[in-house]
Amino acid sequence: KNEVEQSPQNLTAQEGEFITINCSYSVGISALHWLQQHPGGGIVSLFMLSSGKKKHGRLIATINIQEKHSSLHITASHPRDSAVYICAALETSGSRLTFGEGTQLTVNP
Amino acid sequence: GAVVSQHPSRVICKSGTSVKIECRSLDFQATTMFWYRQFPKQSLMLMATSNEGSKATYEQGVEKDKFLINHASLTLSTLTVTSAHPEDSSFYICSARRWAVSNQPQHFGDGTRLSIL
Asked: pLDDT tens digit string along B63-117?
C-alpha cells in the first residue's frame, strides 16, 4: 500500500463541471502539496497546506488532518485545466516529499 | 514566472556520453535542492538530496558514482549522468526550497528529458 494514495487515477470531464480529486496519506506530515504537471513535464506548485482550506482562483484545496485526507477541487473546469495533478506529503521526519501516483485530468470542450 | 530554472530541457546523445543537467534557483537561495526521476505514467522518484557545500544524500538504489551531484553555490546544483546508457533515458526534474524556511513550498524546474541512443 502506497503511503500517499490518490483517486481517481484518470478523470474525464466536460467543460464547466466541478471536479474533485482526493488524496489519502498514512504518514505523519507537516504539510501537503498539490502539484500540477503539464504534458511538457514542468511542475507547478498549486497549494501547500497544513490545515483547513485554501483557495486560488477556481482552485480550492482542503485538508483534514485527523482523517489524513485532502481534496483538490476545480470549479467551472476548462480544457486548459487538463494536466496531471499530484498530491505530495511533506513528512514530519524531514524535508522529503512522498508523492501520490497522480490523477490525469482531461477536460473536454 | 519560473523561480527554478533547469537546463537543458532535452538531451539526445550517444551511449557512453556524460550529460550534465543544471538546476538554478532564480530569485532565492536554496541550501537544499532535490533531484527526481520520472518514468512514463509514473510519479516522481527521489534520487538524491543536494546540500550546498556538502555531499549529496542518495536514496537507496541510486548509484552515486553514476549520478554525480554538485551543489557548489546557494543557487546552483548540477546532476551529471556519467557514461549514460539507454536505461538512463528518463525525465529528470529538480526542485528547490528557500533557505532556512521549512514551511515554504518546493519549486520545481521544467525538467530535462534525456534520451540515450
From this structure: 999 999 998 888 999 999 999 999 999 999 999 987 655 567 789 999 999 999 9
Name residue A85's beta-bridge partners: A36, A103
**Does A40 sit within 8 Å of B46, measured CB to CB?**
no
Q: Is A9 helix (H, G, I), strand (E, B) or coil?
A: coil
Which of B91, B82, B3 lies closest to B40 in space, CA to CA? Answer: B91
Q: How far apart are CA A47 and CA B46, in angstroms?
A: 20
Cα dihedral A38, A44, A49, A55, rounded to 10, equals -80
Q: Is B111 on the interface with A (CB under 8 A)?
A: yes
Q: Could you tell me the strand order of the sheet in which A19-25 lies?
A: A4-7, A19-25, A69-74, A59-64, A52-56
**Contacts of residue B62, Cβ cutoff 8 Å, sequence gap at least 6:** B47, B48
Contact A7, A105 (CB under 8 A): no
Contact B111 A96 (CB under 8 A): no
